[in-house]
Structures are given as structure tokens and as C-alpha cells.
Design goal:
The structure is a single chain. The chain is an alpha/beta fold. It is 43% helix and 16% strand. The protein has a single domain, classed as TIM Barrel (Alpha-Beta Barrel), CATH 3.20.20.70. It contains 10 helices and 9 strands. The strands form 2 sheets. Strands 5-4-3-2-1-9 form a 6-stranded parallel beta sheet, sandwiched between helices.
Length: 211
């Protein structure tokens, strides 16, 4: 596994998944998350300011690892690289996207939702993947079933996980961390409640793989 991706997955039990509507939110959001103990961010490329927000958050928290999320094709991967992403995250994985990440030497956390897709990622050389959408694809039960035949494949489940269910995932032997949008949802960003975001980050950072 690429050392940057390994660090991104192992630094904290939860990787916040962020949708940033306005660029002005990026700096206080990064500071709130870091104050709460989280310094690995997945910034989804779903808003017009997302790429610029990555650069702002990196400047605000220099030791942060910034992941560009919702990367679905080589063009988006190159965009993320141009704006300083440390790694990229995809909801699913195509061969062209995987090959682009290898050519550009930009670490990717590739998306999957089935055993066959996980096996294909392993065949390409990946030892980890983003299980998405986690809850809708079988959740904890599915991941426990996957750990038997594919024990060496590490997983970051994302999608539908909440503060009160994250520990259930972290107890799975094959889970290295979870992705969570509950830490900084758009409703809290809209009202500027960075104190609540910091509190949620602190709780997430206190979780452990032992549950």
C-alpha cells in the first residue's frame, strides 16, 4: 500500500466525508476538524468550490492529508492532483481510473461493493478499498462475511454510517477506518456551527478499532 494512503487510513478511526458549499467555509471547517483531532479529510468533488477548498484546507492545517472524493474518471483525478490532493477516493473503480492513478503516481482509495470487485482490485495490486455505499450494500454483516475469504483486503466503509453505528464497523477485523458525513453535515455548515463540528470530530477521534 502506498505510504501516504496507509497513513491516511490509519491516522484516525474516522475519515470525515465533506461536501463544502462555499469556499469561505473551508478554513474554519479545517480548523474545527483539526481541533477535534481529525486531520485526514475527504473533500467530495460535488460542489463548484471543492477543488479550491482543498488548497485552502491544506494551508489552514499544513499537516492534514487531503483526499479528493467522488473521483470517477481520469480527468477528475488530474484535476485533484493539480489542486494538491494527497490522494483520491472513488465510489467505484474502472480500469481507466485505476491505471491513471498508477501513471500519475497519485494514491487512490478505490471504491467497491461486491466480492468480485474486491478481487479485481486485488488482482490490480490494491490491498484496500472503499466499501460504498456501506449500509445499502450489506453493512457490517457483509463485511464480516468478506473477511473470511479475503482476510488480507482492508476496507474503509462509507455511506449511511452514523455516530452511533461507526463502532459496529470498527469492530470488523478487515476495517481500517470508516468514512463519515455525520461529522460536518451541510446543515451545520450552513449555520456556521463549527463548535458542534469540533465536538463531533473529537468523539469520532476517540473511537477505536476495538469498538
Amino acid at each position: 500500500m502506498h505510504p501516504v494512503l496507509k497513513e491516511a487510513l490509519e491516522r484516525s478511526p474516522v475519515m470525515p466525508v465533506l461536501v463544502i458549499p462555499e469556499l469561505s467555509m473551508a478554513k474554519p471547517l479545517a480548523e474545527a476538524l483539526a481541533s477535534g483531532g481529525l486531520t485526514v479529510f475527504e473533500i467530495t468533488l460535488r460542489t463548484a468550490c471543492a477543488l479550491e477548498a482543498m488548497a485552502v484546507m491544506k494551508q489552514a492545517v499544513p499537516d492534514a492529508l487531503i483526499g479528493a472524493g467522488t473521483v470517477t474518471n481520469p480527468e477528475r483525478l488530474r484535476d485533484a492532483q493539480a489542486f494538491g490532493a494527497d490522494f483520491v477516493v472513488s465510489p467505484g473503480t474502472t480500469e481507466s481510473l485505476w491505471q491513471c492513478s498508477q501513471v500519475e503516481q497519485l494514491p487512490i482509495l478505490p471504491g467497491f461493493s461486491t466480492a468480485s470487485e474486491a478481487m479485481r482490485l486485488m488482482e490490480w495490486g490494491s490491498l484496500c478499498g472503499k466499501f460504498f455505499p456501506a449500509e445499502a450494500s450489506g453493512g457490517v454483516k457483509y463485511l464480516k462475511s468478506l473477511a473470511g475469504p479475503l482476510p488480507e483486503f482492508r476496507v474503509c466503509p462509507t455511506g449511511g454510517i452514523q455516530a452511533d453505528t461507526a463502532s459496529n464497523y470498527l469492530r470488523c477485523a478487515n476495517v481500517v477506518c470508516v468514512g463519515g458525513s455525520w461529522i460536518a453535515p451541510t446543515d451545520l455548515l450552513a449555520v456556521g456551527d463549527y463548535g458542534e463540528i469540533e465536538a463531533r470530530a473529537r468523539h469520532a477521534a476517540s473511537l477505536s478499532l476495538a469498538g
